Amino acid sequence: MPFSQLSSSRFAANRSAVLSGAAVAALAALAHLTFYVAVPPRIWLDSHRYAAWGYGFWEHVAAHEWDLATPPGFPLFLWMVGRWSNSTAGVVLVQQVLAVLACLAIWLAIWRAEGPRVALLAGAIVALSPDRHYYAQSILNEGLAEFTLAVGVCLVLVGNRARLSGLVVSRTIAGFFMAATVLVRPNLGPFLVLLPFIPPDHRTGERGRPRFVAGLGAGLVAWLLLAPWLYFNAQRGVGGLNGSVGYQLIGWENDFGVGPRLDLGPLELHTTDVDRQLRKAALERIAQNPERYAHAAALTFYGLLIPFPPSGDVGPAVRAAADLPPAVPLPGFPIRAATPRWRWRWACHSALSVVYDALLPFSWLGLAWWGWRAARRWSGGPVFVAASSFLCLLALAALLMRNSRYTQPLEVFALGFGLPFLAVRARSRWSATHPRSGDSVIQSATRSPRITVGPPPSK
Predict the structure, then answer these.
(1) Is residue 160 within 8 Å of 198, Cβ to Cβ?
(2) What is the C-alpha R_g of the chain?
(3) Domain range for residue 429?
(4) What's the domain count of the chain?
(5) Among 24, 161, 171, 265, whose CB has the most other CB atoms within 10 angstroms?
(6) 111 located within any domain
(7) Residue at 452 is within a domain
(8) Other CB atoms within 10 Å distance of the CB of residue 387
(9) Tell me: the pLDDT tens digits for 285-333?
């Protein structure tokens, strides 16, 4: 190919990518910022706990005053935002901006893996997701966890086709963001566990050394970030990142009727010794009621994938809404005027919620299919995203933690990767079986788009 033609083709490709990214950024900013203006900050029960630890974060850590259920990532984030704006309006504004950046990270990841057209579709789907708008407007840790996880996954997919130096740098920075995600939401740990074992996508014949060096860099950075909190927990007798596993498991077993009901008492009075006893009691109840536990775990997994609840009572913890009126004050974070505006925006949000709830099960199916297809082509990045996401879902099902909050940071991958994959596959099948007037089936199939997971063909 002549140099002039090569330069023009590269310019056209770059121009297409820039226009696609600008369109996604504009749509995401419009959707998130209009929701920010229209809806007051949402204050949940957990918001008070996060704000209490975030207000005077370092004083609590220095005095070893910390509960067993709250990871440090989001309270630290609140402390950092509090240096700039000590109000709930400032917190949710920062979270809405981070949500826009997370949307761009998903767009960049899918653009690198599948091309600008699929990336434009994926970016639009993620930008309009109503749950993302809502959680970014809430004083909860889901928005921050989604941002750090999306950036980490973007670094994996973008850098996985690079040579040794680029692979090590991207994987090391991804390790930082994955570790930060775990400090915000520990249930997303499978992403960090699988990160060092992702094989690079390129076919250089040198697969062992790049994977080992990149995995070593990611593991080292992640350990340096997690070590202070692990040491802090070890000093107070907590093994790992969370000291309330027994308390939470017993609570969910109570809701699903796995064994006789146990009174737990307030979480604030919970201790490490009590949690060990509760963990032992929870395992004993599972051993004594294996069929009831299996049914509860299956029901939990069903509820995590499909937002429509099945018939039957699923327990008060699942039914109860943790929402509080937006006028309840938070420690150190004054509430802005809680006057609803732009009721049309909330009506749009409600309509989109119905559509996205109907599409979410198909999105999970598309994510599994996308990962399986990538595994057949030895493409490590998509396999990592799909496998980590479903491992998180299985872990939540094993702990009976059926709550849409726990899967919110994962839904961005189902919507951003799985749903566009299904849409493009359906369009390709339709084009192959319904050729245009005057075209043969072969000509139509050749013109239809394809998703290519893996390295581009050599030229």
Answers:
(1) yes
(2) 23
(3) 13-326+354-447
(4) 1
(5) 171
(6) yes
(7) no
(8) 18
(9) 999 888 999 999 998 998 888 865 443 333 333 333 333 334 445 655 5
What is the amino acid identity at position 376?
R
Percent of the chain with pLDDT strictly greater than 70:
80
pLDDT at 447 over 90: no
301 inside domain: yes
For residue 236, is it within any domain?
yes
